[in-house]
Structures are given as C-alpha cells and as structure tokens.
Specification:
Keywords: Aminopeptidase, Hydrolase, Protease. This protein is mostly helical. Helices cover about 65% and strands about 0% of the residues.
C-alpha cells in the first residue's frame, strides 16, 4: 500500500489561498483530501484500478 504524499509547493499554494484565520483541523483535512485525489488520479493514469466487472468478480469470491 502506497502512502499519501503531496508536494510542498502544493501545500504552500493551499495555505496562500486560505483565509488568514483557518482552523488547523480544516487545513489538515484539505491536505489529506487533496493528497487522496492526486493519488487516485495517478492510479487512473497508470491503469491501476479495477473495472466494475472485475470488482464484481472480487466481491463474489468473498461469498
């Protein structure tokens, strides 16, 4: 399982675009969501995903 990562410049951009007074938890959530979206887009670009048919087959194996 790959860990989440995000470029420092992306965090700086997010911080620069945030209000002057931001809740720490909200900013951390924003970082995590952004990192997860970027990871998902990378997986799609690399073909690292299951089709719905493949997912159905995997689920059927559990039963």
């Amino acid at each position: 399982m790959r860990t989440l990562s995000i470029e420092k410049v992306k965090i700086q951009e997010m911080l620069n675009n945030s209000p002057d007074n931001i809740e720490i938890e909200d900013f951390i959530d924003q970082i995590i969501i952004t990192a997860k979206v970027e990871k998902a887009l990378d997986q799609l670009a690399n073909g690292d995903f299951l089709t719905s048919e493949q997912l159905d087959e995997e689920i059927n194996k559990w039963q």
